[in-house]
Amino acid sequence: MPLAALDYALAGAGAFLLYKFATRPDGRPLPPGPKRLPLIGNLLDMPQSHAWKTFAKWGEEYGDIVSVDLLGTRFVIINNPDAAVDLLNKRARNTSDRPSFPMANDLVGWDQTISNLRSEGTHKEYRKLVGRIIGTRNHVSKFDATSELQATLFLRRLLESHNDVEQAIRTTALALILALVYGYKVKESQGVIDDPVVALADQVLAEFGDVTRPGAHLVDVFPILEYVPAWFPGAGFQKKALRHKANLTSFIEMPWDFVKKSVAAGEDNNSYAANLLREGDLSEQRIHEIKWSAGSFYAAGSDTTVSIILNYFLAACKYPEVQKKAQAEIDAVIGTDRLPSLNDRPNLPYVEALVSELYRWLPVAPLALPHRAVNDDVYNGVLIPKDATIFANVWWFFHNEANYKDAYTFNPERFLGPNPERNPREIGAFGFGRRSCPGEHLAEVSVWISVTKAIAAFHIEKALDAQGNPIEPIADSMDGIISRPYAFACVAKPRSEQVVHIIDEDIARLS
After folding, report:
1. pLDDT digits over 212-240, tens only?
2. Nearest 5°: CA angle at 355, between 350 and 357?
3. What pTM does this model have?
4. Segment among 157-171, 185-199, 273-287, 383-397 with least mean pLDDT
5. What is 5-510's CATH topology?
6. Most CB within 10 Å of its CB: which of 108, 128, 167, 304?
7. What distances in angstroms separate CA 484 from CA 51, 200, 206, 462, 481, one per listed residue?
8. Could you tell me which residues are annotated as the binding site for heme?
9. Residue ranges per structural domain of the chain
10. Where does 53-184 show beta strands of DSSP type E?
């Protein structure tokens, strides 16, 4: 019986793989790593979850830079922050590209977002566009009132959440980003969102997680399968991609239609997209850039914001003395008759250190997002080959005792005093080089004010089981490109009877 067309495609892909595996660099040594097997390389060595922990062990065994081969694709893993700065910041011209993800990018269309754009020229234009509106702390200050209001609404949601802290945080993150990016006010009732834009966004973000999961789709291993028609037997991934692409397009267009109507109606909309739209006389390309850059912020910012704020609630449960010190500083500087504001930030060094520790303790992107080497490069005597996928093991940067003392302990004081430890923002908390998070200033302000107001208003403690015993949360993160703490239960108690009144006053002042 003759082979099906898909079998021919697989056979051709296999032949290509044999060729690729057989060709070696021109004598320059690759970074060391686990022993490779013929054809499959290090496929059997690859971890099923929490890859950053396995990569850290490899780093201890083989050195700061490790390489592995996965079915002909070369991966380079950086386990040293200085090497990451050298390769991804100082040599960004060669390492600022993204790897090819056929399923997510070519078939679904995620390559239009800032984080996944491959074209250096287009990516540069996107970053210039974003930089004009939120590229510096001074630029971001125009959104401070929105960030402060959403932070206080977060406190109101905590009061109404019946200790469903994660739901309150998630609602706030979604509401904040939609307000900042589009000027869109989500529909919610008693702290729970019931909104068509958010519902679609949730679906699309879940689908993004599916299409970027390593090894989930054969087309990511054999890119030639991208050209197999959807009607071919065994090409169900093509039908899935078409569904996901339609949802992604709707996700980008729905809030975009809202902000266009808002600007046309002359409404008081101070959002990112509205500010750019008001420039007028925009080319079709510029409209495309504004639309997709706006959608990129929502896609990239919602989960990361949730993760960082969750880190605080987990830390408050595990390290109550840290919470008490932060509250004491706020009470001493501000008092107890109002909530903190962004103007108070320079006067709250312990709180500042606490927020820095949130980024370090459980990083939201443990391996950052992967980079791609555009050309061969030699670093410290080893070859970083062209087309290699490069991972920076940010989790290990932050948990290696050589970089941070008692690295697994949550300790804000490591960033205080005459000899503070390294600021995690400098070594991967927001990515590297030209691929660092373009919304860093906006995200950082939003996290700081949300956490600081929560410290001032609430006492966080462990939940109790049926027998009245504290439920001990796990101080670790789940697997994923964007990681968050394992689910945990906690109790958020207002610090005083007047907190409710203070929250309502603050909402009225900022609205």
Report:
1. 876 678 898 888 999 999 999 888 999 99
2. 95
3. 0.89
4. 185-199
5. Cytochrome p450 (1.10.630)
6. 108
7. 15, 21, 15, 18, 10
8. 437
9. 5-510
10. 65-70, 73-78
